[in-house]
């Protein structure tokens, strides 16, 4: 990336913030522009500093990371959030992604993974710790009611919800399976531009803001 990626660190442990700053500041065009010790202070810093990416803990005093995420979404603040936490319960994971997080890492992630998550978030690309990704895949496989789905990766799609075309639904299901746009285009014999058009319509119809939220919504609807 040509421009610097401006990052805000949010964690109630000063030692953790210091370690993160040493880890990522100056790496591959990343600049740490501020720190905050709780969600309320984080919102103030985001409004004042307009960082590109926020590394956000979940459990903090005064205002949790999840509460801060929801407030960011309500205010329409553009910072992209990567959750960095020691807690990887399904509830925390899904709540964070529904609230707009574009990544979810555990605090034992190696430095290079944290750096890459920041760079990916700046480009609005999701990134997850391997254990978290495994959990997401398991949730996808379980389906909305815990029933197993077919193991074939491109099985025949379920019926599209009202207001969604069958073609849009096919695209949404493949997003939920983790496929990138070129892979979706190849699987459905369409151009990447057409895939993007269908994605834009799905974002609008399902009222989601990014690819991760779309995947979760598709799974909730039985995709």
Structure description:
It is a single chain. The protein is an alpha/beta fold. It has 2 domains: 133 residues, Rossmann fold (3-Layer(aba) Sandwich), CATH 3.40.50; 72 residues, Winged helix-like DNA-binding domain superfamily/Winged helix DNA-binding domain (Arc Repressor Mutant, subunit A), CATH 1.10.10.10. Helices cover 50% and strands 13% of the residues. The chain has a 6-stranded parallel sheet, sandwiched between helices. Helix 4 links the parallel strand 4 and strand 5. Helix 2 packs parallel to helix 3 and helix 7 packs across helix 10. The longest helix has 15 residues. The chain is elongated. 37% of the residues are buried. About 6% of the residues have low confidence.
Arrangement of strands in the largest sheet: 2-1-3-4-5-6
Instruction: Let me know the average pLDDT.
Output: 83
- Count of helical regions: 10
Classify the secondary structure makeup into a structural class. Answer: alpha/beta
Tell me the series of helices and strands, N- to C-terminal.
EHEHEHEHEHEHHHHH
Low-confidence stretches: 144-157
Coarse shape: elongated
User: How many runs of DSSP E, i.e. beta strands?
Assistant: 6
Helicity, as a percent range = 40-55%
- Looking at the overall shape, the CATH architecture of the largest domain is 3-Layer(aba) Sandwich
Strand portion: 5-15%
Question: In the residues, how many domains can be counted?
Answer: 2
CATH class term of the largest domain: Alpha Beta
